[in-house]
C-alpha cells in the first residue's frame, strides 16, 4: 500500500471511512468493525451514507456510476485537498459499485473491506468479512459467526445507565425478548405471535421474573398488538418505539435473551453478552438454511438453544467475533 501510516502509529491516526446506505442494521456492521479497529489503534472514523436515485437503484452493480447517486448522498471520494482513507469499510449491495473501484481510484492507498457476501467481484476487495453461514470462501475471506456489530460491555453499560431507574428494580430473572418480523424466510402472523407470547409469559411467571420486550421495524402491527396484550401484565418494560431505544439496556440487564429466529444480527449480538440465548420459532416461508447454520454454530459454541418454554441457565465464553475481525484487518494491512 502507498502513502499510508502503519496501524498503531500514534502520530498519525488511521483514517477510516464507514460506508453504507444508512439503514441501522447495515451501518452498524461497518461501524462496529471500524470501532473495533479504533479500539486497537488510534483512528478517525468518518461515516458516509449513500443512496442511489430510484431510476438507477435496481441496475446491476457493474452498470452503476457515482453520478447516479442521489443528491442527498455523502461523498465517497476525497474533497479537494483531502486524501483517500487508509481503510474503507462498507456494507450492503448499495456500496458495491463504489467499493470495487476504491483500490484503483486511491492508487492502492486504501485497504478495502466489505462485510457480508458481496456476490459480485469478490477479488476487488482486500478483505471480505462474511458470516460463516454464507459459506463464502477465498484467500481474501474471513468467516465469522454472525456479522460485525457495535455491542461491547462499555456500550451496554452506557445504554443501561439511561434506563437504570426503570430496569434495576425489576425482579430477576430479567428476560429480554427481541422480536423480529416478516422477512423473505419467516413470518410472524397474529396467531403465532399470540401463542409465542403465551409461552414467554408462562416461562417468566414460572421463574418469578420480569420481561423487557422490544419489537423491530419489521414486526407486523397485529403481532405487536397480540404480544403486547398477552404480556403487558408482567413486571417489566415493553418498548413501543417512542423515545430512546432501550436495546443496549435490555441486553445489559437481561439474565436471559430470547431472540426470534429471523435475525442473524440480534442472535450474534446477544451471544456476545455471554448470557443464555433462547431462539424463538417463527413461521417459515421457505427453506432457511443460512439461519439453521447460524443457530447450529451458536449451539456448538454453547451460546444458544431453542426456546423450550423454560428459563434454564447455562454459561459460555462470550463471542467476540468483531474484535477478531478487527485484528485480522490490521494484520492484513500490515502485510501491505
Can you give a write-up of this model?
The chain has 336 residues and is α/β, with parallel strands linked by helices. The chain contains ten helices and 14 strands. The chain has helices at 24-40, 96-105, 153-161, 164-167, 190-207, 221-231, 247-253, 264-271, 289-300, 321-335, and strands at 14-20, 43-49, 87-91, 111-115, 127-131, 141-144, 174-179, 186-187, 210-215, 236-239, 256-260, 277-280, 283-284, 304-306. A six-stranded parallel beta sheet has the order 2-1-3-4-5-6, with helices on both faces. A six-stranded parallel beta sheet has the order 10-9-7-11-12-14, with helices on both faces. Helix 1 links the parallel strand 1 and strand 2 (43-49). Helix 3 crosses helix 7, helix 5 (190-207) packs parallel to helix 6 and helix 8 runs parallel beside helix 9 (289-300). The longest helix has 18 residues, at 190-207. The mean pLDDT is 95.
